[in-house]
Transmembrane protein 39A
Amino acid sequence: MPGARRNPSRNGPGRPLNVSSSTPSCPPCPQTEDKKLDSPNGRLLAPKHVPIPAVPVDDQLMFEALSLGISILAACLQLLNLYRAVWWLPQSYNEYSMNFYLIDPYLLVFILTMVARRFVYALLRRFVDAVSPARWLPTTQRTMRIILLIFVVIILLWCLYYMSERHNSMKVFYLCYPSISVYFLMFGVSIGPFFDISTAPLYVKEDRKTKFLLDKPLHNCSLNAPAIRAEVSSLRSDFNRRLKRALFASSGSAYVCGIAPVIFVPQHLHFNFTWVVQHIVLFWLGRVSAHFAQAYPVRYCDVLHRAALHLGKWSKVEGKNVHIPSQLWSDSVLWPHGSLVKYNKELYRSEGLCTAAEPGNSSHYRFYALFNNPTMLICSLLSLQLVLVAVQLLILLRTVEWYQVLSMTLLLVTNYYTLFKLARDYLICWKVYRAERIVQERAQAAINLTQ
């Protein structure tokens, strides 16, 4: 590798290696091979990436179809909690298990339109991708999105008009204002998040042969420090966008399917308030886990992990000693392990095989802390899902009312698929990154021997 090796006698320990962007560090991921790059003192600089196996990911249409079914089921169960009837009593005048005449039909159309909009969009987008020519595809997709938005807004306004005729206007205000205000605060005037929870570009090709979604963005191995920081900044922004969309989608579903029916309950109707609120919370937590599992698949977490390995971390050296040899930090230098630098009158020591982070930068520190161990995110989601399922099982064991047994059982079944996906992803990540950790520890031991 030209320019990568220097005479050790001319460089003392801890001297940085300034590698330009034209110098290859390691082949592009995910086909990264185990290669070595010699620093001035013979230390390894290139992180070792273990290839992640191909893990199936639900495409957008499949996920939205499942979300639509679960949301409709949750809304029906909430209506059952509110409008249940005692039809089995001898003196009862009810012939059905629910008081259907008390349910506002326009509210049902409103809920169905809100929960079905993303599925309809995914279905139309799949149809447009199949029939539209490649050169007209972006324009056709944008036109389809605008037309669908107009139809959805017309249906919602029609429902709101008749609901305002039958109910207090404040109830209509409570139904619309929270969702609209939160949406504009989070996304502005963009209409993309209203239909699509993914952050991929409008025109994205998928691997039709393997049936695995190609998660974007991809990681590009580099030993150019500014390029590494730019990639980390892009990944951090993409992670935050996915977080906002997942939270809005899950919270919006819980609000429309769980809270909206409660808003339009007649004043004379009595119901179990604690059970209704519990249904909303459990459904919302289940949707949060499902959307997070879809937004952060294994491949995407692996991209964040690889970028974190290249970014590295600085630890502040307490107790300043003027006799410790150090250098001024430079943003164009990729610093080897154990380098001592001065930045803003503070002394920092580099950790990891290489360090491109800015000393004292809190965003770089958080990125490395979160994604240096890639199983942390998936393990947190798995723990949340396990606790959720365990709580639902305990509630189900203590339930005696027929509608509560039915409601909790069906709500519990909807969480099993998410639990399966998270458990599978965690086991895969745990095995893969255990092997990677062994490789990194060996490389770290080789570095320590050369010091």
In short: Strands lie at 313-316, 327-328, 335-336, 340-343, 346-351, 354-355. The longest helix spans residues 225-263. The longest strand covers residues 346-351. The chain has twelve helices and six strands.
